[in-house]
Fold:
Amino acid sequence: MSAVKREEQVVEDSKYNVIGKSVRRRDALAKVSGEATFTTDVKLPGMLYAKVLRSPYPHARIKRIDVSRAERLPGVKAVATHKNTSRERFNTSATMTFTVPHLQPVLDQYIFDDVVRYVGDEVAAVAAVSEEVARQALKLIEVEYEQLPAVYDPLEAMKEEAPDIHAGCHEGKNVPGEVVKIALGDVEKGFAESDLVIEESFKLPVQKQAQMETHAAVAQVTPEGTITVWSTTQTPHPTRMILSKVFNMPNSKIRVLNPPYVGGGFGVRIGCSAKAEPIAVALAMMTKRPVKIVYSREEDFTASDTRHGGYARVKLGVKKDGTFHALDIKGVLNGGAYCSFSSEVPGVMGTMTLAIYRIPNENFVGYPVYTNTTPCGAMRGFGNPQGNFPLESVVDMAAEQLGMDPLQLRLKNIMKAGEPWCLPYPCSSTGLAECIEKGAESIGWERRGKFNKPGATKVRGIGMGVGTHVSNSWPFCVDYDNAYITIEQDGSVQLATGVPDIGTGTSTSLPQIAAEVLGVELDKVNITFGDTANTPFDIGSHASRTLYAAGTAVIAAAKDARKQVLEYASELLDTPAERLALKNSTVFVAALGLTDSCSGSGVCQAGSGKRTSVTLQEVAAHAHLHNKQFIGVGRIVPPNSPPWEAHFAEVEVDLSTGQVRVIKLAAAHDVGKAIHPMIVEGQIEGGVLQGIGYALSEEIKYNDKGKQQNYSFHNYFLPTAEDVPEIDAIIVESNDPQGPFGAKGIGETGLVPTAPAIANAVYDATGVRFTEIPMTEERVFFGLQNKRKC
Amino acid sequence: MSFTTLKFTLNGEPIEIAVSPSDMLVDVLRDKLELTGTKKGCGKGECGACTVIMNGKAVASCLVPALKAADAEIETIEGVANGAAHPLQETFMDLGAVQCGFCTPGMIMSSKALLDDNPQPTKSEIREAIAGNICRCTGYVKIEEAVEAAAEKLREQR
Structure:
């Protein structure tokens, strides 16, 4: 998008002084100058380096492990195995700390176990004076394995004859936790009443977050026994709770912090950064020295959570006039070797897919299934893309069979604010119709179907997909936030919030919110974040929630502090607090306005002689000299609000090679209110490109020995700068009645409907429907060939 | 392990440091010289986070044996600002090209090597120059815009 167009699009709201403006990010200077510190940069005196021995087998029992030769290698300070580390069961994902009370978290991991369940599973770890020595020591560890039968496909793993990967699956063979079931109306009756029923099955790939900084942690144990962990986590407070459980230590004696920057997340470290934190802490306790662990890129690929792949089946019942009447979705998701977020992901797949349209009869059942592959957990979209691609493909199939424009069919059926839906909170707002309208205009929807001449070897097509998402994790997880705002003695402001900034700009946008509510200049506000030692508890940065939920807490804290300031100033100005206002760091009599109030000096004093304004600096200093400080506390349980998005793709398909090239992607998003428009655009653009990767190139496959075939950037095909189409990020503001200043979650929506928009465009271009992604050259080439044979 | 004294110019200053033949330039910079602005994202030359400028060319410092840097002119992110921020640093800050920041130093070094050599690059030359630098956050849109804007700023300055 051109710079000119962006200026038109982002209309700065004169109602606000600070929010709605794309101010320079607070972290920008540190990051462009190389000064920004990440966990992988942390170095402490006496620090040791850890490396991990990983299983070469997909499923095996460790019959014997002998570490004596490794321990004797000069420079080796400790070797950790299942024999000398905590036997406390846990779950590396934060789900173990915030599973909602009517369910039980699945705790199926140890730091090290005597059974390994995927290629890459942890067997032992060494702490040594250098990474090189630690690596050499790994080769000296002798392990005797008894290989066990393994299974890699979730449908196979559900069969009775499949090997048990964990004990205690009460919902079905290899099904951890609960099977997710959602129902509305009577779906069977709904299909019977429908004029057209379309059913299709889809296969979904394993995608990798591929955040730029690999998992890392540095742990330090003091002689008094307190623990500090520098970590790449997205959730410092919940991660502290996990470590507290694993090491049987009080929460209060553990500090988890980002240093303060984190090289991306995309869901992969909600909770621990794979096992970086527990391994570093275990070795630091054994050696009494700081221990650093940095995952190699291969370890990051093979031994940390991926997106769930699997299968989805969609059945949609439609009336003759295009009214959607019944929808049934079934998901079978590959959860990998450990549960992680597998109990929650199907719920989001179901609800987010069912919530898009007004359909009286809906049903979803979602099975998470253990297999002997890398564990699957949270990745941007969290189940939503796995349901959205199938449904939005089927909606286009329905439009074709009905002879309707897929855009009009969607407009006819999309959810409206206040209508009943499958979620336990109301649909508080929707700007989806406006998103569809603006996206269609950007892509030139009217050109659809008019591109291709007979005999062309490269054909073009246009397709669309729409979707929604959450603005926090309730009701799927426990979800609440706290924030402190301290007015310092000089009137400057200290904001403390327990969320991190994983690159999404919260350390800029949260101060914007604080400054707006308080009525102070942005540069007066400093923020402390991502550190359990000096911030109040917060669930963390995930579920598109950080700005929405932590922002709500910041508003509450700022209002509390502001109220205290006005009450105190009330005496100074001899005016009741409710008649005072605070703007530009000045308290003044609201009725007079800021410009007409008297600051107690100069000409205005000669008039009435009564002072009608006082600076925040003066109030804070006066309070200090009278033994008082203003400290605002925000403690909130956020509501939840649905963001909405409509994506339009124009593609070109080379019929001779099967290559699909995205020419343009228009992404219109109802973000509620853009607190920092440039950051919002960046979230949309980044999400769109990850969605293009999901649609066209990104996939981890396993061979018949359970080994990943795509474990490096060399053979896992991420989009590069040369693959970027024109991306038009369009901001639609529906001003949600619940979110902070009307804002909704924006972190994940960019990815969600990208794959179906592209698949529908490929169908428009070629007449071939792809029900399996990514649409690689090979897959498309053979898909086109099969069509020719028919 | 035998050590050799390596001499090179780093951000305009002469450097002498003992390295072993197996040391890579990225590790010498990050661990021995404690210049951690140069990032390490894969260690195999596949992500570009460790990009530095060596004798005027952008290179993946994780693929450069430290001894290959003998007598070379090496420029890292720490040397880019010369008193004031470089135009690339300015435009990366102002046009939203920075998110998590982990790819940023390498991205700026690749872009700087391009602009040092070619003050008026086309869009496709910009894309080619940063094609080896992976960014997983931004979708590259604002990075490309920032490089274009920096080129313009630099031309105005000349």
Summary: The first helix of chain A runs from residue 3 to 9.
